[in-house]
């Protein structure tokens, strides 16, 4: 399983996303490396299909199913609509679902 966390330097919510991701992996006994990728330019954002910081992908697929088909790539902070509110990072439950655990 390939797990990536993409971010850009100016958006610090990736730290909470990384914490949630590592906690879920530990709690579920999933070993493996999280590849952390800093996106440094608009060109790189387009190339990587970066929807904003933080983005988590598992085997190349964004953990947010609503991201399918989006093309608004760029250097920006990302919001996740979860349980009727916007958060700046994915929750542990969202990560678990993406891993097929719930």
What do these coordinates show?
This protein has about 100 residues and is of the alpha+beta class. The protein has a single domain (about 5-100), classed as 3-Layer(aba) Sandwich (Glutaredoxin), CATH 3.40.30. It has three helices and six strands; from the N terminus they run βαβαββββα. It has helices at about 15-25, 40-50, 90-100, and strands at about 5, 35-40, 55-60, 60, 80, 85. A four-stranded mixed beta sheet has the order 2-1-3-4, covered by helices on one side. A two-stranded antiparallel ribbon has the order 5-6. A hairpin with a 2-residue loop joins strand 5 and strand 6 (about 85). The protein is globular. The two termini are about 15 Å apart.
For the structure shown, list the relevant keywords:
single chain, 102 residues, alpha+beta, 4-stranded mixed beta sheet, two-stranded antiparallel ribbon, Glutaredoxin, globular
Cα-atom radius of gyration: 13 Å
Distance between the termini: 17 Å
Q: What number is the mean pLDDT?
A: 94
Summarize the main sheet: 4 strands, mixed
Low-confidence stretches: none
Q: Estimate what percentage of residues fall within beta strands.
A: 15-25%
Give the topology string: H per helix, E per strand.
EHEHEEEEH
Class, according to the CATH hierarchy? Alpha Beta
Query: How many E-type strands?
Result: 6
The share of residues in helices is 25-40%
Question: Strand order of the main beta sheet, please?
Answer: 2-1-3-4
**Computed structural class:** alpha+beta
Shape call:
globular
Give the count of helical stretches.
3
Briefly note the CATH topology name. Glutaredoxin
């Amino acid at each position: 399983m390939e797990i990536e966390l993409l971010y850009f330097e100016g958006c610090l919510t990736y730290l909470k996303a990384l914490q949630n991701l590592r906690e879920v992996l530990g709690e579920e006994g999933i070993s493996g490396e999280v590849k952390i990728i800093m996106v440094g330019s608009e060109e790189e954002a387009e190339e990587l299909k970066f929807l904003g910081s933080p983005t988590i992908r598992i085997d190349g697929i964004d953990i947010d199913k609503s991201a399918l088909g989006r093309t608004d790539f760029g250097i920006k902070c990302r919001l996740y609509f979860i349980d009727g509110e916007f958060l700046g990072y994915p929750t542990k439950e969202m990560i678990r679902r993406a891993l097929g655990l719930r």
